[in-house]
Amino acid sequence: MLVNKEDLLKDAVKSVVLKEVVGGVVEAAKAAEEPEAKVIRIACGSDHAGIELKLTLMAYLQEKGFVCTDLGNYDPDDRDDDYPVYGEKVGRAVAHGEADFGLLVCGTGLGISLAANKVPGIRACVCSEPYTARMSRAHNNCNVLSMGARVVGRELAKMIADSFFGTEFEGGRHARRVHMISEIEARRDEA
Predict the structure, then answer these.
(1) What is the structure's pLDDT at 14?
(2) 124 with 116: CB under 8 angstroms?
(3) How far apart (Å, rounded) are the C-alpha atoms in residues 64 and 50?
(4) Is the Cα torsion angle 25, 27, 30, 32 positive or negative in sign?
(5) Predicted confidence band at 163 (pLDDT cuts at 50, 70, 90)?
(6) Measured in Å, how far apart are the chain's first and last C-alpha atoms?
(7) What is the pLDDT averaged over residues 117-125?
């Protein structure tokens, strides 16, 4: 039996094309089964002392695929601004579902976080290193990260943000404790 080179070539091409088509169908089916990655929305706020670090972090997080919304302050020369205004704005954005998380920056991170924590449903934490940021998410399900521009530098702030936004809440016994915090919040009018 004589083998025709053209027939062999045609069969080889058909085989390759078939493998590519089947492979493409399999890849498409796998992609259809995988859930789409959720876009994480972060509401950002600062007073005049935190504007530069806030903008640095927003650019850094946007490069990583987060969607950041700046709720002010926008003017680093406005030294009459009040950090509680921006803490509340970010807290309300998170509490009302307009953002998944919040990011706050003031001189120390403390004052602005205190304001955010007055909004029901907000668990804002001040972090000056990555470990606390990670644990605030893993164990406390914090939804707002606050930092001090006069306390942490840019690179450390990026590491803190990576730890916070890259950590999932563990649930379990920690969920019970977070629920207890929410119950205290619900009783605050009883004081």
Answers:
(1) 59
(2) yes
(3) 21
(4) negative
(5) very high
(6) 98
(7) 97
CATH of the domain at 112: 3.40.1400.10
Domain count, the chain: 1
Cα(51)–Cα(77) distance, rounded to whole angstroms?
A: 10
Of the chain, the percentage scoring pLDDT greater than 90 comes to 74
Q: Are 150 and 108 in contact (CB under 8 A)?
A: yes
By residue range, what is the domain housing residue 63?
Answer: 41-185
- Is 159 among the domain residues? yes
User: What one-character-per-residue DSSP string does 135-191 give?
Assistant: HHHHTT---EEEEETTTS-HHHHHHHHHHHHT-----THHHHHHHHHHHHHHTGGG-
Q: Are 45 and 104 in contact (CB under 8 A)?
A: yes
pLDDT for res 79? 86
Q: Would you call 40 exposed, middle or buried from its count of C-beta atoms within 10 A (0-12, 13-18, 19+)? A: middle
- pLDDT band of residue 151 (cuts 50, 70, 90) is very high
pTM of the complete model beyond 0.85: no
Average pLDDT estimate for 45-59: 97
- Is 102 in a helix, a strand, or coil? strand
Catalytic residues: 106, 139
The dihedral built from the CA positions of residue 180, 186, 187 and 188, taken in this order, carries a sign that is positive
